From TrEMBL:
This is Beta-glucosidase. PROSITE patterns: GLYCOSYL_HYDROL_F1_2 (PS00653). The chain crosses the membrane at residues 519-540. Residues 1-17 form the signal peptide. Keywords: Glycosidase, Hydrolase, Membrane, Signal, Transmembrane, Transmembrane helix. It comes from the Eukaryota. GO terms for biological process: carbohydrate metabolic process. Belongs to the glycosyl hydrolase 1 family. The keyword S-adenosyl-L-methionine does not apply.
Length: 570
């Protein structure tokens, strides 16, 4: 068979499959991810559980905050949320159906210990049953101890994270969780995104407990000092919890803290000032927490620019240093960064991860959100801050690898869709996930030790101050009936997991659920037959030896990155 004929058929197959396959194509570098790479999904207790006044649960700071007028979109709260408290078997069945073998969840401190200290038997029973079922379904839990829902009793008693008293209370809570659930849970996270909850809770006041310097928005607080103090106590609480963890567990167990941030790129090419600003900005986001956890102290740049920054004692530094076994990385977007004294139109300047101190008091950097369509950042999702920047995930992972030399897991990554996009036929989300998973593979190829990826989120849920106005889930939740409907991205993610596990991208049957793939299958079958003929023909007697053709993997026909799909592909 002439090579030209095969090439023509390949072109025909690509032309036929373009509209059908493109939006559902798998990441082109998927098989570059190592064997054993874990794909999972993530949730958080307050965002999905509901049952706020059931099972002996006490109120958390998010119960109090969300019930204050004007604090959340449409006054939404987590009172009912996805009702996971009553529907967790259904949600675990969804995980199993998708072949998701890794599930990141959080324990509600206020459900387990309503007053922050006293154990609630009904809370223990709920989490025990949940974890038992996960293990029964061969799904490995990754448990977060604190995903922002501090017992309101501790906030009332001593202002929560602003008091050193919180350190012992958190460590005792963590130790009790290790004791109760350690037989099922091997991977533990102390805190999720302290950058976000100390910045939003004590810097801007847009998150619980709602403290800031702006008296038009907050009745109390100091945006210059309180985020630093709260973060300091978070770090010490982690160190004491990690110490108790290591006294109890050894080989086969790990503990970490999940941090978040952007990749900061210099705005002006060749500008030394912008390069320095970008470096300082990365340290202000990532190294603020990770330097103490890995190296034992704050980064010098933060010390130099933050006079209100508390200091660690020698004993505290020793306890902190090396207190994580790996890094949890939450990533959604990136930004370009300019020097603080650079002047730009006000409309083009964004904030710095929600923390005024990064832009104002500490003068570390001014961030700029480029307009939609700029080739360096890309389109924006349903949230105005979420610019699609998969290259930023690659660069963040490489930056963290170079600085800390620890294994990593991408513990959250996902998006909401722009207004007007179909929430169930969510091809925009598929494109986002595909490009970012490919970014993880690229980072691994360039030397980053990344071991897992968790999509945010399994379910649409309560998205904090945005309430239920933003949907990040692989599963659509009707908030009136609480009915779960898997989205197109759910089927795509299930196919991706199966493809990686089987080391094959040739999974045509499930490429585009609900679409006619007869032509794609027919062309693929013809091509497979032709390639077999070509292989056999090599061993048949010939009068003249022909040059062997280049064999083309069938997966090239099925998996076509960067095919026009109406969505920019990175």
């Amino acid at each position: 068979m002439a090579l030209g004929a095969v090439t023509a058929l390949l072109c025909l197959a690509q032309a036929t499959a373009t509209k059908t396959v493109a939006v559902d194509a798998l990441p082109p570098n998927l098989l570059a991810l190592p064997d054993g790479f874990a794909f999972g999904a993530a949730t958080a207790a307050y965002q999905i559980e509901g049952a706020a006044s059931e099972g002996g649960r006490g109120p958390s700071i998010w119960d109090a905050f969300s019930h204050e007028k004007g604090k959340t979109h449409d006054g939404d709260s987590g009172d009912v949320a996805d009702d996971h408290y009553h529907r967790y078997p259904e949600d675990i069945d969804l995980l199993a159906k998708a072949g998701i073998k890794h599930y990141r969840l959080s324990i509600s401190w206020s459900r387990l210990m309503p007053d922050g200290r006293t154990l609630n038997d009904e809370g223990v029973a709920f989490y025990s049953a949940l974890l038992d079922l996960l293990v029964e379904k061969n799904i490995e839990p990754r448990v977060t101890l604190y995903h922002w829902d501090l017992p309101q009793a501790l906030e009332d008693e001593y202002n929560g994270w602003l008091s050193p008293s919180i350190v012992e209370d958190f460590a005792a809570y963590a130790e009790k969780c290790f004791e109760l659930f350690g037989h099922h849970v091997k991977t533990w996270t102390t805190f999720n995104e302290p950058l976000t909850f100390v910045g939003g809770g004590y810097g801007t006041g847009v998150m619980a407990p709602g403290r800031c310097s702006d008296r038009s928005r907050c009745i109390a607080g100091d945006s210059e000092t309180e985020p630093l103090l709260a973060a300091h106590n978070v770090l010490l609480a982690h160190a004491h919890a990690a110490s108790r963890f290591r006294a109890r567990f050894s080989k086969g167990y790990s503990i970490d803290m999940v941090n978040c941030g952007w990749m900061a790129w210099p705005l002006r090419d060749g500008s030394v000032d912008d390069m320095n600003a970008a470096s300082s900005f990365m340290e202000a986001q990532w190294a603020w927490f990770l330097d103490p956890l890995v190296r034992g102290d704050y980064p010098p740049s933060l010390k130099a620019r933050a006079p209100a920054l508390p200091q660690f004692t020698i004993e505290e530094q020793t306890l902190l240093k090396g207190s994580v076994d790996m890094l949890g990385v939450n990533y959604y977007t990136s930004r370009y960064v300019a020097a603080a004294d650079a002047v730009y139109p006000a409309a083009s300047v964004g904030d710095a991860a929600g923390i005024p101190a990064l832009n104002g008091e500490y003068h570390l950097a001014t961030t700029r959100s480029l307009s939609e369509g700029d080739p360096r950042i890309g389109v924006v999702g349903g949230s105005p801050w979420l610019y699609v920047a998969p290259d930023g995930l690659t660069d963040v992972l490489l930056w963290l690898q170079d600085r800390y030399h620890l294994p990593m897991a991408v513990t959250e990554n996902g998006c909401d869709q722009p207004s007007g996009e179909d929430e169930r036929d969510d091809v925009w989300r598929i494109d986002y996930l595909r490009s970012h998973i490919d970014g993880v593979a690229t980072a691994i190829q360039r030397g980053a030790d990344v071991q897992a990826y968790y999509a945010w989120s399994l379910l649409d849920n309560f998205e904090w101050a945005d309430g239920y106005s933003k949907r990040f889930g692989l599963v659509f939740v009707d908030y009136n009936t609480l009915t779960r409907t898997p989205k197109r991205s759910f089927a795509w993610y299930a196919r991706l997991i199966h493809a990686h596990a089987s080391s094959s991208l040739l999974l045509v049957d499930d490429v585009a659920p609900g679409r006619d793939l007869k032509m794609v299958r027919a062309v693929s079958a013809v091509l497979l037959f032709l390639l077999c003929v070509m292989v056999v023909s090599r061993f048949l007697p010939k009068r003249r030896r022909l040059r062997a053709p280049r064999y083309i993997e069938i997966s090239e026909v099925v998996t076509m990155p960067n095919v026009e799909s109406g969505v920019e592909v990175f």
